[in-house]
Amino acid sequence: MVEEKEPTDDSQKLQLLLLxxxxxxxxxxxxxxxxxxxEKSVSEIMDTIAAVGEIPKTKEQESLIPIGSGVFxxxxxxxxxxxxxxxxxxxxxxxxxxxxxxYLENQKTELQKNLELLSAQxxxxxxxxxxxxxxxxxxxxxxxxx
Length: 146
Known about the structure:
alpha+beta, Helix Hairpins, 64% helix, rod-shaped
């Protein structure tokens, strides 16, 4: 097992701090991307909840169904209060509009919890990064004075 030795001089301490700073910046970059994806998922779920609430009220029998890459197919809505909900592993369940909305609200709640945790982790890393930056600046100034 390799022991981490305490740096013996200021130049080694500065190098170690710069490595920590780089690592924190990389972590922040990844977490920021992850945060954006989760926020997008929450927004998508909110849009879906709104659509599920509106479909049973509509008088239209025909709808455009997206099949991907900006391509749609016209379809007749046979049942406006029944939805097929994917619950994972290619398993779909029949649910009514209220059941579907409840399912989606639960998913949204879980995603929002993840957003809060991720935001807290980001704040923690930002605090550590700021501390490391300040310490590195002080060490650099000290090394410059000789």
